């Protein structure tokens, strides 16, 4: 891979993939709709000679074609808001796949684990797709669209991440907790504090995603991006408090509390149906990655949390 375009480059996963590609000496085009945010990425990378950007609309495949006309791989990191998923997710998939098919490109889709529903077996890539939520069923349709036989020239793969955290994270379930602690303010934790859950550190995820993308035989498949193990909310908060010194109250939000907040907040209303993951968790197997790619990067939670919180505190002080 010599050149790549990152769609949704200003998002949490988009930013770390841009960084990982540049670290490997790969030329990168950051694609997004916000001039201001794209300028920020250029500034963060000190106007790196191998980084350029293209303004465009993810729902207009022609703008993607124009941006990606001479790249080796398209990384699709753009997403839609929860409350817009029903009306926009499949349109996004259609647009991006049409662009990749027009160009005959390889394309990597970054997605989550809603397609699986409750964990009923080993959490490998062959886990049954038995979603019991609207979002999960829609994600199954999304996967079917990506791997549809109607695309004659595109070569696609899907990487699936659990919950995540990291310096670039923006919309993860841990974000309000970590931002509150970094700002030394009272905050919330989505879910109960006792359930051990899997989280992947975004820089680790980026390494795995790019490693997968570089293998020609990776395409046409789903790939898991596992984290460094399981950790409870209680232990996350303990680490975060040790890093920041903050002792402000953290309020765990149950499904009932989320449902009540949802009466006034459209986003939280959409969170209710996936609260099962905060109670049960879902553990991804990394055996396929280890067998076909190599060792899984596993930044310890303490180190990952320190790096994340230090950046959040820095931004808070600037703020």
- Give the strand order, joined by hyphens, for the main sheet: 3-2-1-4-5-6-10
Shape: globular
- Stretches where pLDDT is under 50 for at least 5 consecutive residues are none
What is the radius of gyration? 19 Å
Structural class: alpha/beta
Q: Can you count the beta strands? A: 12
CATH class of the domain at 3-164 and 200-227 and 282-298: Alpha Beta
**Percentage of residues in DSSP E strands:** 15-25%
Tally of helical segments? 13
Examine the secondary-structure arrangement and name the CATH architecture of the domain at 3-164 and 200-227 and 282-298.
Answer: 3-Layer(aba) Sandwich
- Termini gap: 38 Å
General description of the model:
The protein is α/β, with parallel strands linked by helices. It has a domain at 3-164 and 200-227 and 282-298: NAD(P)-binding Rossmann-like Domain (Rossmann fold, 3-Layer(aba) Sandwich), CATH 3.40.50.720. It contains 13 helices and twelve strands. It has a seven-stranded parallel beta sheet, sandwiched between helices. Strands 7-9-11 form a three-stranded mixed beta sheet. The protein has a two-stranded parallel sheet with strand order 8-12. Strand 2 (27-32), helix 2 (35-44) and strand 3 (51-55) form a beta-alpha-beta unit. Helix 6 packs across helix 13 (301-318). The longest helix has 19 residues, at 85-103. The protein starts with a strand and ends with a helix. InterPro entries: Epimerase_deHydtase, NAD(P)-bd_dom_sf, NAD(P)-dependent_oxidoreduct. One of its GO terms (molecular function) is aldehyde dehydrogenase (NAD+) activity. Residues 5-225 form the NAD-dependent epimerase/dehydratase domain. Pfam families: Epimerase.
């Amino acid at each position: 891979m010599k050149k790549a375009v990152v769609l949704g480059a200003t998002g949490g996963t988009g930013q770390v993939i841009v960084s990982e590609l540049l670290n490997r000496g790969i030329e990168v085009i950051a694609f997004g709709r916000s001039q201001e945010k794209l300028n920020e990425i250029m500034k963060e990378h000190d106007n790196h000679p191998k980084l350029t950007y293209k303004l465009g609309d993810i729902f207009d495949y022609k703008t993607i074609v124009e941006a990606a006309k001479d790249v080796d791989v398209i990384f699709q990191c753009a997403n839609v808001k929860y409350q817009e998923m029903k009306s926009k997710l499949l349109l996004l998939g259609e647009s991006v796949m049409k662009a990749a098919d027009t160009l005959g490109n390889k394309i990597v889709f970054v997605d989550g684990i809603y397609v699986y529903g409750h964990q009923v077996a080993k959490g490998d890539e062959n886990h049954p797709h038995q979603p019991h939520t609207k979002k999960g069923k829609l994600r199954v349709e999304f996967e079917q669209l990506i791997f549809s036989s109607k695309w004659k020239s595109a070569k696609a793969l899907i990487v699936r991440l659990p919950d995540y955290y990291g310096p670039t994270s923006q919309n993860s379930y841990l974000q309000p907790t970590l931002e509150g602690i970094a700002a030394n303010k009272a905050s919330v934790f989505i879910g109960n504090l006792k359930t051990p859950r899997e989280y992947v550190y975004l820089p680790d995820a980026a390494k795995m995603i790019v490693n997968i993308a570089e293998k020609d035989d990776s395409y046409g498949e789903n790939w898991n991006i596992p984290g460094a193990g399981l950790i409870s909310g209680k232990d996350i908060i303990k680490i975060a408090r040790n890093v920041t010194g903050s002792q402000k109250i953290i309020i765990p939000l149950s499904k009932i509390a989320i449902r009540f907040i949802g009466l006034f907040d459209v986003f939280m209303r959409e969170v209710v149906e996936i609260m099962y993951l905060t109670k049960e968790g879902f553990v991804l197997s990394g055996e396929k990655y280890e067998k076909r790619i190599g060792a899984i990067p596993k930044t310890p939670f303490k180190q990952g949390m320190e790096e994340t919180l230090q950046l959040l505190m820095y931004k808070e002080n600037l703020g």
